[in-house]
């Protein structure tokens, strides 16, 4: 029996050893896979591009790198651009949606391929001739016997995802006709025109979607086909009418990256390939609006050139930089192209060099890795290649000033570290704030959407409803137990935590961004909100105007937990005490000034886009109505990890009294 026990013990130890060995091997394989997923800038040019080393040639390499992943699924000309479905809310949800899924994969990867094919028509990927592949797949769209066949829009059919993708296809046909369109026979061209025009010459969504109709109608008019020119002009004029100034178009009703990678990019492309020679008056208006984006859109990116996580379709990532290359040709005289290229290259590397970005050789739906709260139901796995529009910049020749300007920090090189810089866009009411001390950018913008009216569930969610969005603190999803970051939450009548989402902008004055807000399920719960950006954070001086008692909570930005546990500490300055959390990269501090008790550290799981676990500083209060309302004031501060706190960090407390004048 003793021998048996020893034997069993030995086998148990051996099994544990083998298990540990296998786990270590699996971890090593995982690390190697992640390393393989990282794009390498070979032979960087730090003379031309001191920050990134990226030149036009490296952009070509990046486009090929991204396209190679897509073509790893292509072994014959008949293989569709259909990729593994990411678990969650994405489509296809039934077989009827599969042809559209294939259409998306085809037309969106073509954004990456078209500029490459224009320079290298003989390009091959995975042993497949790329130009031949896309021509073959385009013909499958009009072949009733093909599983990729797209049924023309019925006479009374409404707008659909097919319209979006055919609009994208029309852009690629415009920019590389010699390799995609011209080799087709007359019969093939006529059949493709009939299908695409059935969608283009039809209803649309009153947003950036109008440009999909515009590009379809414009391309076939350019090729000599009879098109509905009256509808084309109508959609153009309505798109112009959506302009609100300072570079921002209203996307019915939001302001987000679609204002730029949709309205602004499509406008300048359309003007370049078709508008200036056919509708010069409209084209000139669009170009004038395009020049305005230089006012504050570049400031929306951090000092190191990275984009912030904000708005729907964030999984398209570096599509955000797609207008910048064309600023050299159409942006006017006051454009700092070296700064814009630094932003563009840095944003591309922000994702191509992140180990979580690719999954199964295809970009995930999320921000860095897969992140379900940031995914919308209209997306499939191929949707992510919308980011490929950034590579349309490769249509510009090597001698274009966008490629020859030396990278620089733009206005960041002149910013003073002890100051904060705001750029307000009247009309859209977008506020972009730059923080030189830490190199972060931040945005405050529209949100006023009820959950009950938001059938697609994105405009009422964390994608839009935060008080602000930061380039260094990506937004955290809300938890079922009241975990909330950079927003207020209230216990509603169902005893559930409900966040603010119905904001009404009031004014921006003397550095203060002022809004009113009301709880969706109870109009008696309402706040008057004042955000005052500080050099090292935000001063909030909010007034609760509710006429009912309510349990309330306010969260700071959240910190993801990386290689070490998040540490908590305190720092006292005079009568005030800061509670601080530190994840080894950044520190966040909360300093209650009026109305609040002591902050608590709320640990969360599965809510943050950068790590499985995270922490957020929260403040709680039980509000009881008062005649004049009650003020709740707090400083929400930040520093890099390792930087020390001192009394100067809390010297802005005196601004509370000034801020009360905004009442």
TrEMBL record:
Keywords: Signal. Residues 1-26 form the signal peptide. InterPro entries: DUF2264_N (IPR049349), UCP014753 (IPR016624). Pfam families: DUF2264 (PF10022). Residues 55-408 form the DUF2264 domain. This is DUF2264 domain-containing protein. It comes from Plebeiibacterium marinum.
């Amino acid at each position: 029996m003793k021998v048996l026990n020893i034997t069993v013990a030995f086998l148990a130890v051996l099994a544990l050893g083998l298990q540990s060995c296998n786990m270590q091997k699996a971890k090593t394989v995982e690390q190697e896979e992640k390393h393989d997923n990282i794009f390498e800038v070979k032979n960087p040019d730090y003379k031309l591009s001191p920050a990134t080393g990226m030149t036009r040639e490296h952009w070509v390499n990046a486009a090929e790198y991204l396209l190679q992943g897509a073509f790893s699924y292509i072994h014959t000309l008949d293989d569709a651009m259909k990729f593994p479905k990411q678990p969650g809310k994405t489509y296809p949800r039934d077989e009827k949606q599969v042809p559209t899924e294939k259409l998306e994969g085809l037309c969106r990867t073509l954004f990456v391929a078209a500029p490459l094919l224009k320079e290298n028509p003989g390009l091959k990927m995975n042993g497949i001739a790329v130009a031949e592949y896309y021509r073959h797949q385009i013909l499958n769209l009009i072949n009733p016997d093909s599983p990729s066949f797209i049924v023309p829009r019925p006479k009374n059919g409404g707008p659909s995802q097919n319209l979006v993708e055919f609009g994208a296809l029309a852009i690629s046909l415009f920019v590389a006709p010699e390799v995609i369109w011209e080799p087709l026979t007359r019969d093939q061209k006529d059949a493709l025109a009939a299908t695409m025009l059935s969608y283009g010459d039809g209803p649309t969504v009153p947003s950036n979607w109008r440009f999909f109709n515009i590009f379809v109608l414009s391309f076939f008019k350019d090729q000599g086909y009879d098109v509905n020119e009256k509808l084309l002009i109508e959609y153009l004029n309505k798109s112009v009418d959506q302009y609100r100034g300072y570079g921002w178009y209203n996307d019915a009703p939001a302001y987000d990256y679609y204002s730029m990678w949709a309205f602004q990019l499509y406008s300048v492309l359309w003007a370049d390939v078709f508008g200036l020679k056919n509708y010069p008056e409209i084209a000139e208006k669009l170009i004038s609006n395009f020049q305005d984006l230089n006012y504050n859109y570049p400031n929306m990116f951090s000092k190191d050139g990275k984009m912030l996580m904000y708005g729907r379709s964030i999984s398209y990532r570096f599509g955000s930089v797609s207008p910048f290359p064309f600023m050299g040709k159409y942006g006017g005289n006051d454009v700092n192209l070296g700064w814009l290229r630094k932003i563009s290259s840095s944003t591309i590397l922000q994702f191509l060099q992140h180990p979580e970005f690719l999954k199964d050789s295809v970009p995930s739906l999320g921000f860095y890795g897969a992140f379900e709260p940031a995914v919308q139901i209209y997306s499939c796995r191929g949707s992510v290649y919308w980011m490929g529009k950034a590579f349309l910049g490769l249509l510009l020749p090597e001698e274009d000033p966008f490629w020859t300007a030396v990278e620089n920090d733009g206005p960041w090189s002149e910013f003073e570290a002890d100051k904060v810089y705001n750029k307000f866009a009247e009309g859209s009411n977008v506020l972009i704030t730059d923080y030189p001390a830490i190199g972060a950018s931040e945005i405050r913008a529209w949100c006023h959407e009820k959950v009950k009216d938001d059938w697609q569930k994105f405009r009422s969610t964390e994608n839009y409803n935060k008080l602000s969005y930061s380039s260094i603190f990506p937004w955290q999803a809300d938890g079922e137990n009241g975990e909330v970051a950079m927003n207020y939450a209230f216990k509603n009548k169902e005893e559930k935590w409900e966040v603010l989402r119905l904001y009404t902008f009031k004014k921006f004055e003397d550095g203060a961004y002022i809004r009113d807000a009301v709880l969706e399920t109870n109009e008696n719960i309402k706040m008057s909100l004042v955000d005052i950006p500080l050099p090292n954070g935000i001063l909030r001086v909010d007034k609760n105007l509710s006429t009912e008692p309510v349990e309330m909570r306010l969260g700071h930005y959240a910190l993801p937990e990386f290689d070490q546990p998040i540490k908590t500490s305190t720092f006292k300055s005079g009568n005030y005490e800061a509670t601080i959390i530190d994840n080894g990269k950044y520190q966040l501090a909360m300093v209650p000034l009026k109305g609040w008790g002591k902050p608590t550290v709320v640990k969360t799981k599965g809510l943050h886009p950068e790590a499985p676990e995270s922490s957020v500083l929260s403040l709680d209060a039980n509000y009881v109505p008062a005649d004049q309302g009650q003020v709740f004031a707090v400083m929400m501060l930040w520093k890099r990890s390792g930087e020390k706190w001192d009394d100067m960090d809390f010297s802005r407390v005196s601004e509370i009294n000034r801020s009360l004048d905004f009442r």
